[in-house]
Amino acid sequence: MKLTVLGATGGVGSEVVKQALAAGHHVTAVVRDPSRLDVEGDLLEVVVAQLSEHGALTEAVSGRDVVISALGARDRNPTTIVTDGARAAVAALGSAGVRRLLLVSASGPFVDGDTFFTRNVVKPILGRILRHAFTDMIGAERIVRGSDLDWTIVRPPRLLNGPHTGEIAARTDGNVRGSYSINRADVADYLLRAAADDSLVRQTVSIAHG
């Protein structure tokens, strides 16, 4: 598989790059600062580009089987990084004639499937603390859903830096109940498997540790 990763130096993005290379995939990592990419490999191509550089992004996704947007905010300040990435990715894929797009969002802004306590107590508090990031992700999801691409939106809960476990629960009809975190390595594992799963085209999937 040939894939392009946006946000390749982030926690999830770097795991996607590492696992994809280990599995023998050809990976194009789109980064703003190549010094922050601590991965090497014969199957790795590094493209230095801003999200505003449509031509460079179109070239980076051209001929690829899938594009994974793993962009995310690094703090709690106002941000549009995920929305900007979604908009740029949709435009670049359209120009390049590439169909498959995976977007990393989050389960936090959404309550479908949650327990009464989580929906009415935990999520309102979380929504105030992370309101800027959540607004950004909601906007990104809206852009991706409005496209005619073969998209999949993946919503993990709280992200941890633990090892790859392979213990992943997934739901397409709401958030995973009773599990409120997942290791970034497991998110990457799920993304790579989902990329080749046609049953997940135009689906939103919530994942968590199983």
Portion in helices = 25-40%
CATH fold description: Rossmann fold
Order of helices and strands: EHEEHEHEHHEEEEHE
- Give the low-confidence spans: none
Overall, the morphology is: globular
Number of domains: 1
CATH class: Alpha Beta
How many helices? The count is: 6
CATH superfamily: NAD(P)-binding Rossmann-like Domain
Which properties best describe this structure?
NAD(P)-bd_dom, 210 residues, 6 helices, alpha/beta, biliverdin reductase [NAD(P)H] activity, Rossmann fold, NAD(P)-binding domain-containing protein
Folded structure, characterized:
The protein has 210 residues and is α/β, with parallel strands linked by helices. The protein has six helices and ten strands. It has one domain: NAD(P)-binding Rossmann-like Domain (Rossmann fold). The strands form two sheets. It has an eight-stranded mixed beta sheet, with helices on both faces. The protein has a two-stranded parallel sheet with strand order 7-9.
